[in-house]
């Protein structure tokens, strides 16, 4: 036990003191916050406007194209053409031919520099709505009234809520909160398994190629060596993860102090505009965000945090020990390692793929079984739990899944210990899966 | 008292008998040579003594008590043939780490590492990394790490490989000093001249079995072929006699093999009667190298590869 602790300390300290660890731990949050900051700055300071001169022979569009104050503005001048717009001081010229129902003419947008997709889209949208306006007028409809009818959503007239029937009580369903928590947890576990699993494997390979393995096993049992390494690296992972969370929170709140409120507001606007293309949608998103905030408040945080730590640790132990076993049998050749890690990375990647669908159908057969089998349960179960225990996930499923994961990692640790014991002292030929299985089954 | 007693030790792998019923004992303070060709089972034998492998059969006693791999690590220092250290770890930290794993407390480990580093003039290495050291320096460090925790039994597998003569001598002297202070040393190698120089007791292992066991001079006596070298002032007359067979002749020296039933004095008498002025008369003992080759040659050259433990 004491020796495991010494190895744990060594594995932990050498990694935490490593320059790469320190740099990546501090750099990533700074990068994220800087990215957000730069986006905010650009969004609020991007005052360069594109002025487009419109040559509208038909007269159908004149004064019906709305200028977007921050991006595009339209000026009307039928004397402007593709040859002289630059001399007149415009960025681009929009040439609209006379409307002829018999043939399909081309509207040309000519510029010296590439205008960008968003500007093109904006111009197209404006042309579309101007055209609609003209057509409505011809058919004697009033465009604003038609627009308001078309944009009427049921939530303008009624309140809409999804409820869950649970033990006679009816609860408000909070899909988006559950989705957000579930997806994030699953994603974090997925990344952890991959990165730290590989780190364990490389650590073991290093011991083997540096020929320190035999020096070590004369003082400690290979099993102690393996457990010390796995737990040490787990602690490194948790440390880094916690540091990131803390740093991002600190930096963001610091940014909140230094950046003016309008800028932050602008960021929010930009973010919403990425999804919707109008102020109506922004309003909707805002109310949805409000819903989500309320829903987050109703989440059972203690259960979720406990389950997250459980599946994080369990999943890590399950896979890291297998990665250690693989590390113990390969030699310097990275190619060899790759072919042996494939059977380990495949189920992890597959779990992630399954999660992207199971999160929409947390009660389907696939989701239930994938959340019970230990190969995929750390990722899938974490994506289901936020939807409600014992609602979406009955207690028996959670219990079975946890028991299976514990049994699973005890099994993989035992199996890996057997392979590791033999593999770590073996140089030369790479063993086959069959040989490794034989080592594992030997007493 | 015997520091180590090995009784009927056996370890069979699926494809061969790696160690097949080997017994021997080691006296305190002795330097013991474990010899054998590649694949003879030396490494397997050592791995059982260090607790890396469990024997299939047989017993190991350390200082009179049954060997317990979990708690006896502190008593043994092992420098394997396949050796190395963490490349990126500071040398001082590494030495402390490894001796703590043996069972020293942190304070003792640090004190001991400092003491040895001073002794070998390695104080300036503490904050360096292995990758900054030359191969010879690395070997020296490896030796220090092996003996840091003052083990009673020190097992060295090819300890001089990669060392220049100066550092080899430094370590050789240290081996003598450790033996003098009461440590027992097992020395495994193919380099017979080193064994003759250092060891007082050897065993030779081939194909998993012990084939020779004894002191260096005893073994030489056991395998001597009654060869003598005689030096003359003047070589005249007949050199043939029923007492000996002439093996070689060069300049004023001849090598003779004394025939069965005759003694060395009879040979001398013969030459004296011939009126030959004898300058020297020396018994030629076989070198360990000769004995080794003689015993091992002819046996199908063992296992070319490390045993696959399947």
What does this structure look like?
The complex is a heterodimer of chains A (443) and B (310). Chain A is of the alpha/beta class. Chain A folds into two domains: 2-39 and 174-441, no CATH class; 50-135, D-Maltodextrin-Binding Protein, domain 2, CATH 3.40.190. Chain A has helices at residues 2-16, 19-45, 117-138, 143-150, 154-157, 175-209, 213-217, 222-258, 261-275, 279-297, 301-329, 334-358, 365-370, 377-384, 395-423, 433-441; strands spanning 50-56, 72-76, 92-96, 108-111, 163-166, 169-172. Chain A is elongated, with a radius of gyration of 30 Å. Mean pLDDT of chain A is 80; it is low at 273-282. Chain B is an alpha/beta fold and 310 residues long. Chain B has two domains: 2-215, Rossmann fold; 225-284. In chain B, helix 2 (91-102) crosses helix 3 (106-119). The longest helix of chain B has 16 residues, at 165-180. Chain B is elongated, with a radius of gyration of 24 Å. The model of chain B is unreliable at 301-310 (pLDDT under 50).
Topology:
The complex is a heterodimer of chains A (443) and B (310).
Chain A: H1 2-16, H2 19-45, E1 50-56, E2 72-76, E3 92-96, E4 108-111, H3 117-138, H4 143-150, H5 154-157, E5 163-166, E6 169-172, H6 175-209, H7 213-217, H8 222-258, H9 261-275, H10 279-297, H11 301-329, H12 334-358, H13 365-370, H14 377-384, H15 395-423, H16 433-441
Parallel strand pairs in A: 1-2, 1-3
Antiparallel strand pairs in A: 3-4, 5-6
Helix pairs in contact in A: 1-8, 2-8, 2-9, 6-8, 6-10, 6-11, 6-12, 6-14, 8-11, 8-15, 11-12, 11-14, 11-15, 12-14, 15-16
Chain B: E1 2-12, E2 17-27, E3 31-35, H1 42-49, E4 57-62, E5 65-66, E6 76-79, H2 91-102, H3 106-119, H4 135-147, E7 153-157, H5 165-180, E8 184-189, H6 192-198, E9 201-206, E10 209-215, H7 216-222, E11 227-232, E12 244-250, E13 253-258, H8 264-273, E14 278-284, H9 288-296
Parallel strand pairs in B: 3-8, 3-9, 6-7, 7-8
Antiparallel strand pairs in B: 1-2, 1-4, 4-5, 9-10, 11-13, 11-14, 12-13
Helix pairs in contact in B: 2-3
